[in-house]
Structures
1.
Amino acid sequence: MTRSTPALDLSPLSVQDLLCTSALSPADIERIFATARTLKAARSQHTDVLRHKRLAMIFEKDSLRTRFTFDVGVQDLGGSAVFMDHRDARLGSRESVKDMAKNLERWVHGIVARTYKHKALEELAQHAAIPVINGLSDFVHPCQALSDFFTLTEKWGSLRGRTLCYVGDGNNTCHSLIHTAARLGVDIRVCSPEGYEPNSRVVNEAMRTALETGGEVTILNDPDQAADGADAVYTDVWASMGQEDEIEERNGIFAAYQVDAELMARCKPGALFMHCLPAHRGAEVTQEVMDGPHSVVFDIAENRLHVQKAVMALLMR
Ligand code: CP
Ligand code: NVA
């Protein structure tokens, strides 16, 4: 490891927390991407922008990617993380979220939390004088969507004029993709079974934002129509964490929404396949597509590290 530190522009973002990408301006997103690019290119260089900084990690749900990438990421930047496995007791059950925030702010410099209720994250952020980063809530998954679009900038250069097709449940991942696509001026088509469409407030807000950025948000129920001529197809599990008792019912309802080679063939030649992971091979995506030449799922997983390092470097100063 060399000792030269990469040159980073760490002037503040327009937000103090990262709860939802709908709070970010297009300029904030560009700053996060530029910082992530620099940090990624300089991974072998010594970087100590978070020297002596501590990150609290509070997770109500399982995680591989988010947990590893925040922990490794803060260490890469010279800091350290303390993990609190909160699966058996939800935030606010032992003491109020406010009191938790008031304690944590005395010990650490930032919090990443993975929660069921999005409101718990908002409360943490409201009461803690340190940045709070959303590591997934039932409502949104902002770090995921930032890493998804960062990966697309690496693959495509400009995102302008590109169409992302999301097939599946209108869930947390989907909401953050819609919020972020609208801010970046990317066309997004979301295709879900009836009754499983994304939150209408998310869609309406994104449609208004897209009018200003030149993007387009389209909600459909027919996967063939949604994939037609798309540049990338994205899917996620049919039952998210917390919906385990609905798996069987959902497997039936979503069966026609599997991403397979036939659906990919409706897209532009070379269209990318995306998934936040973990994937259920043989359910929402076939083995063939998941392991196919245009699958970028592990590039996205890698980029969680670089993008979240950028988010921490910009927020935890
Ligand atoms: N995509 C994602 O957030 O993965 P984990 O649930 O493993 O953190
Ligand atoms: N929608 C999924 C994403 C997991 C990263 C879930 O919430 O379980």
2.
Amino acid sequence: MTSTRKSIHGQWSNRIVFILAATGSAVGLGNIWKFPYIAGENGGGTFVLVYLVCIALIGIPIMMAETMIGRRGRQSPINTMSTLAREEGRSPGWVMLGWMGVVAGFLILSYYSVIAGWALSYVFRTGSGAFLGVTTDGVNHIFTELVTDPERLLAWHTIFMVMTMIVVARGVKHGLEKAVRFLMPALLALLLMTVAYSMTTGHFMEGVEFLFTPGTISGQGVLIAMGHAFFTLSLGMGAIMVYGSYLPRHTSITQASIIIAIADTGVALLAGMAIFPIVFANGLEPGVGPGLIFKTLPIAFGHMEAGTMIGTAFFILLSFAAWTSAISLIEPAVAWLVENRGMNRIYASVWIGIFTWVLGIGSVLSFNLWSEHTWSVPFLFENKNFFDTLDFITANLMLPLGGLFIAIFAAWLMSENSTRDELNTNKFIFRIWHFLVKYITPIAVIIVFLNVIGVISL
Ligand code: PFF
């Protein structure tokens, strides 16, 4: 039966706005900061291949499922899950899926904001001309100086959280459209300029080969690649679900999901092609970890024509991209507080902001005072500090688990009448989607999990 529910939070004005907002959520630090460094740490080629396969076979179908569930429920993910579970005659326990997403959103934003703070601080570093003619040692020094200073990190983390709260308090829709409409093409242009610089380093093909020539990968590497497919597309925690709840009735979810996934993947691959040639041209290590882009791109900006200007613009845009992702991380929680606690958006954002900010202090300290405080969980990970642990638990466990449950709910528990009606796509595409979400996604996620804990060995 067709659902006629309306969202109390309003609706996107049209399809394009939804695509822009969801792309704004998807494209962020995950593409430009995280993808290159985890690809570097996990050996390149095969990692990238697994990631691309996961985007195609898991990411796009889950994005369709999440958007579809959101549009059908038309509320915050918590209330959407509880309404749909009731309507479909399923256990009220499904509301937990919404809750898990809210928790994942808090956890992710707490460290996301710290890294976004690095990007903000690099706007000023680059703008001041600090990277003109810089050497490898020089960039390393500037980076280390920043991350080993907890007060500076805390200040930038605070600034970023305040920026995020202001937008969330005003309502996600105001301003987002304009920001993203300008941001995406501009970011693309600057990335292309950096790729063009990388072509002049004489090591371009080495970088490309690193990214695209299959080699070996560990079971952990497969988990990280799959987790990243969820992280980069903002899936598995309700961000896309809540954006889907503002989607007009007749928009094609299939088309929108494919466009968003292609844009997101394109940005990540371009970032990789900009960064790895610089890595090899300067004798750097691909596996240096979270500092990778901050230790490579400034070298490009320090040596290219008009590099100070281009570099400053680049870090401004990166901060913007992080901003449009950050707001989607807490929209599910804010929407719930407004619906259930009758709070206005301003209060809701301030409370969530304070909570997330405090948690972020743990990540601030992970790069300096607490960097030696690490722990291991048998079968799962070894020697991770606070920041690495949060990243691992959210991106590699919570998001795929959320995705797994979304797949089970959409394909096994919702009636085909409901999903067919809401997706409103042609028969052939519906069949493929249903098959992928019913079998491929759950099986793939379960196999990767079992492989990591050593129950099976791939
Ligand atoms: N997709 C964002 C990125 O790649 O930076 C991060 C993110 C946003 C993850 C929203 C999850 C989410 F719900």
3.
Amino acid sequence: MATVFLGTIVHTKSFSEFESFENGFLAVDDNGKIIGVGHDYQPWLSSNSVQAKDLTEIRLSEHQFLMPGFVDCHIHAPQFAQVGLGLDMPLLDWLNTYTFPLEAKFSDQQYAQEVYKSVVEATLRCGTTLASYFATNHLESTLTLAREAVRQGQRALVGKVCSDCNSPDFYVETAEESASATLEFVEEMRNLESTLVLPTITPRFALSCSKGLLKDLGDIAKRFDLHIQSHISENLAEIAVVEGIFKTSYAGAYDEAGLLTNKTVMAHGVHLEDDEIALLKTRGCSVAHCPASNTMLSSGLCDVKRLVNAGVTVGLGTDVSGGNSVSIQDALLRALDVSKHLDFFKKQNIRGTGEAKTQDPSYVQLKYKQALYMATLGGAKALSLDHLTGNFALGKEFDALLVDVSVIEHPVRRLNVDELVEKFIYTGSDRNILEVFVAGKRVKKECQPE
Ligand code: GUN
Ligand code: ZN
């Protein structure tokens, strides 16, 4: 039976286009596809083959609205086991001290099953309808993560992590093992026959992969037309080592291996140089902006407006557990914070007591509707899945959140559409997410029509 939601509907159409329908409608067919959206329900109904009696109507309250589901472009599923812990070190020390020992434990299938069940539950609860997951080096437990996403009905890209050098003895593969396990993973994923969960090629980062392994992974991605994810230019110490090994820029190291494609998403990009940004743009690669992690691991302030202005698509990532929260709603707010901090940094000493100079008086802060785009359609585009999800365009799958801003605190007056969205973003509580839908199916609580 098809469903129609009646009430406030919001989504974005591009970085600078936000669209809303107050007293609007959104109709979903029984395959979970969007068949109607707009201001005027009755005219749509009359001109459509769908009969009113064949539609279940869900009427939203004045404090509720429907928006596209959140997209997490970068999250390490095993690191959910240490989320909120060990955030007192920069990247390379943090990896060696906490993260590699943790990930090595995922050779244990029972442990993997437990953590992966929890991380998918937690991200769904926060409204993540699409996540791009890093698992670990282990083939078996990576498949466990993929099966768990399928079981819980989350849309996901899942990657077996690949690392064959500059890693501890207890957590490293040979290049041959890594490439052949990746091939096996891709094959097993095909056997899953899921339309929601797909494999993604996942070199951990250039520092922990030999040139040969990167090239093999680039070849596999090309042969099967696969998605690719990795890290780039996150931390200055890391960049110095990569450039020393590869004798080229960080982006150049990936490009030489054929890993920069229009299905590639690179996390961080805090310290990318202009020519690297131009190369990403030319190759059609995207960046996952991970504001929480960039702060927690002291990596730096990423200027996403610089990336966007250069024509690079940017989505958001939680980067759990470098990031301390599984919520993209939190990442959205943190992205706005970082942009404000950059603005202060670039301008605030104009009137200071020191030398009167500014780095960039023309800097324009990220707007909340632009950050909402990055959290939804921008993320879907960054993962090359925007033909399926990310907004409410006709024919896309219904991946959505039903938000109610009165859950935490009843607004003292009626809010207009923009205010509903602002309230949701700036009060920042996922308790306001009442329902989560993926491909038309409820994956959170039962909906309670009024
Ligand atoms: N670079 C390589 N591995 C990682 C990781 O697990 N987290 C982050 N933030 N950066 C990385
Ligand atoms: Zn990461």
